[in-house]
Amino acid sequence: MDTCCVPMKSTVHLGRVSTGGFNNGEKEFFGEKIRGSLNSNLRINQLSKSLKLEKKENKIKPGVAYSVITTENDTQTVFVDMPRLERRRANPKDVAAVILGGGEGTKLFPLTSRTATPAVPVGGCYRLIDIPMSNCINSAINKIFVLTQYNSAPLNRHIARTYFGNGVSFGDGFVEVLAATQTPGEAGKKWFQGTADAVRKFIWVFEDAKNKNIENIVVLSGDHLYRMDYMELVQNHIDRNADITLSCAPAEDSRASDFGLVKIDSRGRVVQFAEKPKGFDLKAMQVDTTLVGLSPQDAKKSPYIASMGVYVFKTDVLLKLLKWSYPTSNDFGSEIIPAAIDDYNVQFPEFQFYDPKTPFYTSPRFLPPTKIDNCKIKDAIISHGCFLRDCSVEHSIVGERSRLDCGVELKDTFMMGADYYQTESEIASLLAEGKVPIGIGENTKIRKCIIDKNAKIGKNVSIINKDGVQEADRPEEGFYIRSGIIIILEKATIRDGTVI
């Protein structure tokens, strides 16, 4: 360990010291010129002489930076021992993730009429649950619990096919599906009453001996679309010695009321939390978002800080909150987090979420390449195993095993695809009988539409909502309209010549 003798003013403040107590190897220490040689033995002798030590030998402790501070008139000598503290690194083995997948999913209805929201297809070949799962894998978090309840069969099946057995390897980790269940006692007969209640019902999992090393728990939503390294969030959580850490993003006026909003102080500590405020309460949550890195122009457009629904808890803090402090609170966003702000250190860190090197994972289908014959495709994603012939696809996503016949025009549309193939002979037989096969028939025009799985759309159909209808419920005819977007139901049949 290198030391030296440095003259300093009595008002000097000690800052961070680099390795060995020197500034990148230069002859400076805390901004002052070093007096003496850089030979450690010579410096020790000089230090001993200056202090007139008679029978003592100055011993240098390893891992400690020593300095001598003198007043301006040099009549007083002060010793300062500075231990070189290493930053505690977050260890993924000490972290578990809890993914909440049991919500009713009313915002995505009718897509969630038969499936849980996290199992809704996205991006052609993925499910929404693949996003937080992939973020966990890319963050090296391999202890994952998925809580399921509502319409859980498709979600459980996808998780089993993708992440169990021959799917993604988790090494010494695991993925466990914790399905909603009833237990003895009056309280045990109820289903999950909210996000916090879902975790509370399985709190015994984190008290189990095999999970005793879990120090921090990352709580995630199963239906959000984003990319994040959760270990950066955990590292920030550890660096600030936070009890609870929220991941947040700037929000505009038009969308702010859809989120939980936070106010922070200059240290990044959350001082106020409001769940989906309206009116005056919404305006009261405006903050200067230049404090979190936005430019003045962007700060004017986005004057709110919105919670992303991604939380990091110290394990003991989470257990205390759910079992003892707020045993009847059912939701993290509207009850637990606002109540915990006064008693716990709740932090908001700053992050950038884009990373092109981290892939998203999903279940392998082993499908053949897509066959495209004389088609016009612009700004589109075409998944595996599709058959496209003499058609036009613009600004759309076409899911797996989709069939588009001659003259089809697809624009601003998400087609989820099919779960199975129909052979050419089966298709010909259905057409001969006047029935509609899976896929889209000849000369059909579709605009601003979501087509659910295994839908059958016939020939000469027009799905363009030319009257601009914003809301409509026509389940008997196989479709809904939400916010002006037509949604064709799963397994629906749209007959030849239909106009929607």
UniProtKB/TrEMBL annotation:
Residues 97-347 form the Nucleotidyl transferase domain. GO terms for molecular function: ATP binding; glucose-1-phosphate adenylyltransferase activity. InterPro entries: ADP-Glc_PPase, ADP_Glu_pyroP_CS, NTP_transferase_dom, Nucleotide-diphossugar_trans, Trimer_LpxA-like_sf. Pathway: Glycan biosynthesis; starch biosynthesis. GO terms for cellular component: glucose-1-phosphate adenylyltransferase complex. It catalyses: alpha-D-glucose 1-phosphate + ATP + H(+) = ADP-alpha-D-glucose + diphosphate. The keyword Nucleotide-binding applies. SUPFAM superfamilies: Nucleotide-diphospho-sugar transferases, Trimeric LpxA-like enzymes. Coiled coil: none annotated. Heterotetramer. Belongs to the bacterial/plant glucose-1-phosphate adenylyltransferase family. This is glucose-1-phosphate adenylyltransferase.
